[in-house]
Design goal:
The complex is a heterodimer of chains A (286) and B (274). Chain A is mostly helical and 286 residues long. Chain A folds into 2 domains: 30 residues; 224 residues, MetI-like fold. Chain A is built from 13 helices and no strands. The N terminus of chain A is likely disordered. Chain B has 13 helices and no strands. With 274 residues, chain B is mostly helical. In chain B, helix 2 packs across helix 13, helix 3 packs across helix 7 and helix 9 packs antiparallel against helix 10. The chains are: A mainly alpha (286), B mainly alpha (274). At the A-B interface, helix 1, helix 3, helix 4, helix 5 and helix 6 of A face helix 1, helix 3, helix 4, helix 5 and helix 7 of B.
């Protein structure tokens, strides 16, 4: 009977009408806590247990430094390729009509749907001496399998959809009036692309490239097949962490994993900021 | 108005060059690796292919991977619905942070996820002594494989359902509540019909990912031959055994699942938005 009075003085706030809030939020938090949060905390605690001096010693050991360098270099190569190839794909898929376009669009999802180990297996065989591409490239003096190019290739394959699928919707949403205005003002096609289209898709493109780069740094399944995994030559950071585990050197594994985790979280932050910028751009462009 | 052809652009020739470049690169870079799997898998004929698939070790790997997916996918669907319902239909402080948190497993390398689980449940891990005292085996056994797969696939359903629920707002549900429906009725009769295609799509993607998980499972499974070898791990094992045709045969089953997922995706694409 007293509940009737609540609506009078209190500030007007949408009351919760829909049921199930406690149940759904409770389930979500429980799942996140047990599946994601506690395991990640276990890693961070392990890192704290190692102590700064030993942590630094592990991370700055020559083999670890080489692994980080190889991982970063290959990820940069892969991301540069994907930045260009992904942009081309997004542009062609949005702007042109041609037979087979739907198949081409569907193929862009293959790297996400295909298990990374399968991708790695196929790329390795394809680029090795008895594959389809290996002999052709060998004739040109290019070695892919068991080199850093192979690592970059595996990284590029597994991360290309990030660029395509981030740029595509922005390009689709662009107001044609902007470009028409530029045409009216006498701009040439290339000028319109660089001055009108490119600035509009830039935030989304950068966000896609950042995500692709982050994915490349953490990729494992596709790379272990093609890399040959030689320390100091073709050993990536994720694999070094894995090897440390197999040697029961849990400190070594945890330290390297923490560095990769820090990279991933920083890149996630950058990508989120870019996406935020992109969404503001899209609203302004409407 | 569907996207009209812009009134400018590179000449017809320029357009053809760009399309040709896009098609050529995609054929070499994506279609060729896909086709190559089947070419190699069948390179010694149907009988060898069948023998490779029906090999007991391969069958066991298929079985283990299937069991993992059967456990993980429904849990993930339940989590995805709960998360989307909480975030999209209610306002509360920390919503934005929760959405970012749900996405985090996407950014973390599966290898790191595996290491996290090993440090928690492994013999030297935080819970290791307690698990051993109670004779519970999590690592190098099915529970570990399931848990790490749950980590890796956590965002899959939520991220498909959440934007859709958000876009649909709460008006229909509020009307149903006003008309006297209880929570379960509101969900089943109002919300679920609106999100069913997105839900199915998310579940398909989650299945494909769960079945194909490699790095994380590789850390926690211990690679015990014939016991904790999932299908992707079995592919690696055969490859290392220099049984390339066998590896490709096992890989072809995973590729078929991926292709089915893509076809379902293409079929659902139109309906999801409707």
């Amino acid at each position: 009977m007293t509940a009737v009075a609540t609506n009078t003085g209190a500030p007007v706030r949408a009351k919760r009408v829909l049921p199930g809030f406690t149940l759904s939020l409770g389930t979500t938090l429980l799942y996140m806590t047990f599946i994601v949060l506690i395991p990640v905390i276990a890693l961070i605690l392990k890192g704290a247990e190692i102590g700064p001096a030993r942590f630094w010693a592990i991370v700055s050991s020559p083999r670890a430094v080489a692994a980080f360098q190889i991982t970063l270099t290959a990820a940069v190569i892969a991301t540069v390729f994907n930045a260009l190839y992904g942009l081309l794909m997004a542009w062609v898929l949005v702007r042109y009509e041609f037979p087979g376009k739907r198949v081409l669009d569907a193929l862009m999802d293959v790297p996400f749907a295909l298990p990374t180990a399968v991708a790695g297996l196929s790329l390795t065989a394809l680029f090795s001496a008895n594959g389809w591409f290996g002999p052709v490239l060998a004739a040109l003096g290019v070695e892919v399998v068991y080199t850093i190019w192979g690592i970059a290739l595996a990284m590029a394959f597994t991360s290309v959809p990030f660029v395509v699928r981030t740029v595509q919707p922005v390009l689709e949403d662009m107001d044609p009036a902007l470009e028409q205005a530029a045409v009216t003002l006498g701009a040439r096609p290339w000028t319109i692309f660089t001055r009108v289209v490119f600035p509009a898709i830039l935030p989304a493109w950068l966000a896609g490239c950042t995500t692709a780069f982050a994915r490349s740094l953490g990729e494992f399944g596709a790379i272990v097949f093609i890399a040959g995994n030689l320390p100091f030559r073709t050993e990536i950071a994720a694999l070094l962490a894995y090897i440390r585990l197999e040697e029961f050197d849990y400190n070594g594994a945890a330290a390297i994993a923490l560095v990769l985790l820090a990279f991933a979280l920083v890149l996630l932050l950058i990508s989120n900021l870019l996406q935020f910028w992109a969404s503001r751009y899209r609203e302004a462009g409407r | 108005m569907s996207t009209p052809a812009p009134p400018y652009g590179p000449s017809r020739r320029g357009e053809r060059i760009l399309i040709g470049l896009a098609v050529g690169l995609t054929v070499l870079f994506i279609a060729a690796p896909l086709a190559f799997i089947f070419v190699r898998a069948f390179s010694q004929g149907w009988q060898v292919y069948a023998a490779n698939i029906l090999h007991p070790a391969t069958l066991h790997a298929i079985w283990l991977t299937t069991i993992t997916a059967i456990i993980v996918v429904p849990l993930n669907v339940a989590f995805g619905i709960a998360a989307a319902w909480a975030v999209a239909k209610h306002r509360f402080p920390g919503r934005g942070i929760l959405v970012t948190m749900i996405e985090i497993p996407f950014s973390i390398s599966p290898i790191i996820a595996g290491i996290c689980y090993l440090l928690l449940y492994g013999r030297q891990g935080l819970l290791g002594p307690w698990l051993q005292a109670n004779d519970l085996q999590v690592m190098f056994a099915l529970p570990g494989i399931v848990l790490v797969t749950m980590f890796v696939t956590a965002p899959f359903v939520a991220r498909e359902v959440l934007p859709l629920m958000q876009a649909q707002g709460t008006e229909q549900e509020q009307a149903a509540v006003t008309l006297g429906a209880n929570g379960w009725q509101v969900f089943r009769r109002v919300t679920l019909p609106n999100i069913k295609w997105a839900l199915l799509y998310g579940a398909v993607l989650c299945t494909a990912r769960a079945v194909g998980e490699f790095g994380g499972v590789s850390v926690v499974s211990g690679n015990i031959r014939g016991q904790t070898n999932t299908l992707p791990l079995h592919v690696e094992l055969l490859f290392n055994d220099l049984n390339a045709v066998g590896a490709f045969a096992a890989a072809s089953t995973l590729t078929l699942i991926a292709i089915v997922a893509l076809v379902v995706k293409a079929l659902l694409e139109g309906r999801k938005a409707a």
